[in-house]
Task: structure prediction
Amino acid sequence: MADDRYNLVVIGGGAAGLVSAYIAAAVKAKVALIEQHKLGGDCLNTGCVPSKALLKTAKVVQMLRNHQKYGIKSANYEIDLGQVMDRVQDIIRRIEPHDSAERYRELGVEVIQGVAQLEDAHTVRVGSRVLRTKAVVLALGGAPFMPPLKGLEQIRYRTSENLWEMRELPRRLVVLGAGPIGCEMAQAFGRLGSQVTQVEMGPRLLPREDADVAALVEGRFRAEGVRLLPGTRATEVLVRGGEQLLVCETDSGGRTEVPFDELLIAVGRRANTQDLDTDKLGIRLNPNGTIQVDDYLSADGRGIYACGDAIAPYQFTHTASHQAWYCAVNALFSPLKRFKVDYRVIPWVTFTDPEVANVGLTEQEAQARGIPYEKTLYGLDDLDRAIAESEAFGQVKVLTVPGKDRILGANIVGAAAGEMIAEFVAAMKHGIGLNKILGTIHAYPSYVEGNKYAAGNWKKAHAPEKVLKYLERFHGFRR
Result:
């Protein structure tokens, strides 16, 4: 092929773009990856990696604060947010080589730094270069959604993108939004020592979760001193006498002013699709700005594919990587062979403490869709490992087909929920029911035993009463 002719051009170097380029190179296609900022995207630079690093520091502080619970007579500590953020950046640097241009070039990907202009399904311009390609993958990512908040331009506000520039711990932090990002950061900064107020226009935290799950997290937040204002809509930012105030209206019709030193806006994300010439390219956007794609992740039916946060419906790094496989394979091998994207088993985790992990249906989803289910619960306050680590809090919830052990969904709230959920993900992916989980040896003492005990509770509820009565007579006869 000529130097500027490719099998695939990938626009965007976040998780979706990196995996798309990796797969194309692995099957010996000629592929170019174009990124205008940093490779690794939001996940490495401003999202998953830095947030988990900060959460770990906050958890250590919380353990020190509760040192007597662990039999430690005294413990002293001092928070320096500058040092905390230095650690966060060091962790980013240590992980960065996994997503580096050098690594991908070694894999056979041509990495190009610059702004891509997509002219059609087979032509991409980068500066003075024109790249001709069989197909294009749009992995444009997303950015924090900014609400139409009056007076916001008066202040320096924080989002998940610039939060990591902070060097001094704010005395009063207001977090606007109660989704995963808002909840994780509200708890982290509260543990580090800020007075945190969390404002949410909905009736509770974590609106995607079931009400009982959200209640467990809310209880922990309140116990740790986070001030929660559900049913409260922010309308305006005021600066009065040098004091910054968030003006809010409550569901009951009241008005309140919340003072703050820093404001973190975490009300969702939007797709980076604002610069696409949709009419020229023959693609359509959904009302929320994401790209419309078919079951094969094609955006135009002619050679433009899309994946990751730019298409949703799941804005997770692991889902972006999952979609990227379908994008790359379908773009390279269509119409000879193509695959429908499979969303049947998608896990997600909110890394609060306790963690909240899900796969499959939640109760509120099942109820909204009219899907019948049975619910089985196991309380982690009864689990030996959780008791030994003073983490006896939370639950395992499993939804099954009525009368059967086939899993429709699982939710875990607890110290190691993000790890425990993997067993249910594998079970749903490969058609394994609760009976086989119950019959599997689980190491003792471990958190994942909670899954087995939940399966045991299901078994008890479905015990064959007639058979047990006959067995009782049989054993009585043999005595």
